[in-house]
Specification:
By secondary structure, this protein is mainly alpha-helical. Helices cover about 65% and strands about 5% of the residues. The protein has helices at about 1-10, 10-15, 25-35, 60-75, 80-85, and strands at about 40-45, 50-55. Strand 1 and strand 2 form a beta hairpin. The model has no long low-confidence stretch (mean pLDDT about 85).
Length: about 90
């Protein structure tokens, strides 16, 4: 999202101001740290070394889906600015 914003507006100060671009990454990092102690996203069996999804893996899918829809809407709303600046 930072790249898309920079590509459209060519302003690095704008990216530093918009901290909400990085909030999904911070939320995912926190949930992955919690996953070390309580396997909510996934677990790996020590006995047979198999990977299995946890009961709450849908949280990550929702976060990524919202982020992609936001990025698509952002690009569509600002597409005219990109062509004017060129």
């Amino acid at each position: 999202m930072c790249y898309v914003d920079y590509y459209i507006f060519k302003d690095s100060k704008r990216i530093r101001k918009n901290i909400y671009f990085i909030l999904p990454t911070i939320l995912t990092l926190i949930l992955l740290i919690i996953n070390f102690f309580y396997p909510i996203y996934f677990s790996v069996s020590i006995i047979d070394n198999t990977y299995s999804l946890g009961n709450s893996h849908w949280i990550q899918l929702i976060i990524v889906g919202i982020y992609y829809f936001y990025m698509l809407a952002f690009v569509l709303l600002n597409r005219k600015k990109h062509f004017i600046m060129r």
